[in-house]
Fold this sequence. Notes:
By secondary structure, this protein is an alpha/beta fold. The chain folds into two domains: 7-99 and 179-282, TIM Barrel; 100-165, no CATH class. Helix content is 42%, strand content 15%. The protein contains ten helices and eight strands. The protein has helices at residues 24-33, 50-60, 93-119, 125-133, 141-150, 157-165, 180-189, 205-212, 229-241, 270-282; strands at 7-13, 38-41, 63-72, 81-86, 193-196, 219-224, 245-249, 268-269. The chain has an eight-stranded mixed sheet, with helices on both faces.
Amino acid sequence: MKKQKNIFADLHTHSTASDGLLTPTQLIESACEKGLSVIGITDHDTVAGLAEARRSAVRSGIRLVEGIELSCGWKGRDTSVHVLGLYIDENATALQKLLNEQREQRFQRALKMVDLLAGLGLDVAELRQRFEQTPEKVLGRPHIARYLQERGYVKDFQGAFEKYLSRGKPAYVAKDHVLPEVGIDVIHAAGGIAVVAHPGLTSDWTEVWSHISGLRWDGIETYYSEHTPSDVKRFAELAGKYNLVSTGGSDYHGEYGKHTNRLGNYGLTQELYFDLVSKCAAKGINIV
Length: 288
């Protein structure tokens, strides 16, 4: 998408609790500096940053939307289908149980990738030490990619994936998926709305939607930073057809690569945000 004007709400961002570069406090402060009124923090498979973000949001006078981005999938599918949970209670029992399981799986997967890199002759002892000292952190390939870039093993962040970490590359390890219906149920049990994240990035979207369209979705991320105008039109029409709300966000991870200058430039205008609120209210979901 082209940069938007008068962005009021960004409902898709990441902090250092997962793979973002800014702490929750820094992210809240940056959102305020960009003039946002509402900020959603949706870290990958963790809610660890929300308490800090909430304290910062209260100090800053910005509305925090507590969220999460769950990595989901099913047997035989190579890539994840991401599910945003917005307006969640991060202390909900079912959510905490799922996230504890996910964190352990991510931790073991990260160590396996580190071991594979070591087997290729790369010095990753420091990276393994970092991981072992923070088993509570939700780890993923971006953490490994940044380390490889820092140490000069690859030219840039994307190069780490192209050379080592993508499917079929020598340090790739497949991950266990949570079924989308399980993710949706957990989000609902936590009082949130379940949203299909960045559908325009899914290369086989038609096939994927045929697989998941019958699930209990509440919304679709229509206004996403990497969507083309035709994507926006397509998913807005899909939202109308299936009685889904349209959400929007930047997917901001910090000032690097494609994420540079995203915050404050993508998301929902005030009109679109309150349209979301009213449509949720019509569904019996109070998110004010």
